[in-house]
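Chain A, query sequence.
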Amino acid sequence: MTTPSEPLVAERRHLVNLAYRLLGSLTEAEDAVQETYARWYALSPAQQDAISSPGAWLTTVAGRICLDVLGSARVRRERYVGEWLPEPLPDQPGPADRITLDESVSMAFLVALEAMTPPQRVALVLHDVFGYSFAEVAEITGRTPAACRELASAARRRIRAARPAAPAARQAGLVRDFKVAWAAGDIGALIGLLDPGATLTADGGGRVRATIAPVVGGELVARYVAELAAFGALTFEERTVNGLPGLVLRRGDELAAVYAFAVADDRITHLWAVRNPDKLGPWLRIPITRVDPPGTRELG
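Chain A, predicted structure.
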């Protein structure tokens, strides 16, 4: 016999997927979902029975919690040391395996969401990604359906302003070639793989060394990453990062960074380097499958 709690537990994956896209943080998403369930179980049995759709109730509460978190997060991120980037997700079993890895969790998409106001972000994700009607979005955000439609429209214009992404297979080839050139210290090859206006953004959070401001320009990015490799034995591992080809960097047994990429017009346009150890928990549990020593050269 199915107990009342079983369908609620089944909603958890959906709620974590929603919260991660809204917050860009698996840790904060898990906390938001935990708070959502805490509010449900704080209701009396009579109050629970009066709710015709517990799943819809949970989604509404989770959306409102995320909206509140986004509001406070903007203040916290103003005090953040350096650039703030979303938590990168691996494709290995673990807490992150509850996240469906599609275009809406790509680093490019999540970074674009960061530039939006919290209401714009919530309206876009709920309507465009999860298919909620604007009436349902209005219930969650406390705005009118018309206002939510305008919020989503404004957010959509920001997304469209980004350059179109390359197919995953093409991105994998470029990332592999970049890895080979990086390991070999071939600055000329690195420059050839980067868009002239390429940008590298690093997130150390004040916990580890990382460039505070983005590095802008293909040649500057190439020289920057080449200098990183010159500081010690750096190894590279090809991994799926937020559903797209990326790299994991290690120095010996230490996880140094997780790199996500954006590709357009057969060039790498953006690199996002997450170094803050607070954001790399799921990656620490993944065994090393392959590393390439510095200087190893492969045919790209």
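Strands lie at 194-203, 215-216, 234-241, 244-251, 254-264, 267-274. The two ends are 57 Å apart (CA to CA).
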